[in-house]
Amino acid sequence: MARSASYGTEIEKLINLLAKLPGLGPRSARRAVLQLVKRKDSLMRPLAQALAEVAEHVHPCSQCGNLDTTDPCHICEDSRRDPGTICVIEDVADLWALERAGAYRGQYHVLGGTLSALDGIGPDDLTIDTLLERAASPDVQEIIIATNATVDGQTTAHYLTERLSTTGVRTSRLAHGVPVGGELDYLDDGTLMAALKSRRPF
């Protein structure tokens, strides 16, 4: 971003940092910084304190990869959750999305991404070995592969299914297709194809 004479280097640095966040470009970052500066006591200082606390205390769970202030995380430590089911996701954001839905009460495993030949990401760059170790536990009965319906997500799912086939644990895949309330005319071709392939008896 070009240096502007309308604000100093401190503000410019903050704008540049915020602009790196997903969903925020330079224009949105400038608006956010302006609000922070206007509301120092009610917004900026509490935000700075919260950021410092998160940076100091939040870390990945050594068991599943979730982000929490405890290790193991509160999900892994929750005795009410089903230890026999592990849902494999790409990122912590996917874990948060599933938790918001409230429909899953098992354990998780965060891969840390997907296999991608173009980006040079191979099996050793993900937490696949840790997943295989967890799958070897006699408590685990099912692995749900919940990678995204992208080319890399599908490639990763196929690779995981192949690796997990030697463990004897049942593997399943999230269904992909027509969303609840969706109209066929508004769906893309890939979603329609996935819906047809995932059809079931009525």
Explain how this protein is built:
The chain is an alpha/beta fold. The protein folds into 2 domains: 9-57, RecR Domain 1 (Helicase, Ruva Protein, domain 3, Orthogonal Bundle), CATH 1.10.8.420; 67-173, Dna Topoisomerase Vi A Subunit, Chain: A, domain 2 (3-Layer(aba) Sandwich), CATH 3.40.1360.10. Helix content is 43%, strand content 12%. It has helices spanning 9-18, 26-38, 40-57, 74-77, 92-101, 128-135, 151-164, 189-197; strands at 59-60, 67-68, 82-89, 106-110, 142-145, 170-173. Strands 4-3-5-6 form a 4-stranded parallel beta sheet. A two-stranded antiparallel sheet has the order 1-2.
> Uncertain spans, ≥5 residues at pLDDT below 50?
none
- Average pLDDT over all residues: 91
- The count of strands amounts to 6
Number of structural domains: 2
CATH class of the largest domain: Alpha Beta
User: Going across the major beta sheet, what is the strand order?
Assistant: 4-3-5-6
Termini separation = 56 Å
Assign the structural class, choosing from mainly alpha, mainly beta, alpha/beta, alpha+beta, or little secondary structure.
alpha/beta
Strand residue percentage: 5-15%
CATH architecture of the largest domain: 3-Layer(aba) Sandwich
- How many strands, what sense, and barrel or not for the largest sheet? 4 strands, parallel
**What best-fitting shape do the alpha-carbon axes yield?**
globular
Please provide a brief summary of the model.
By secondary structure, this protein is of the alpha/beta class. The chain has helices spanning 9-18, 26-38, 40-57, 74-77, 92-101, 128-135, 151-164, 189-197; strands at 59-60, 67-68, 82-89, 106-110, 142-145, 170-173.
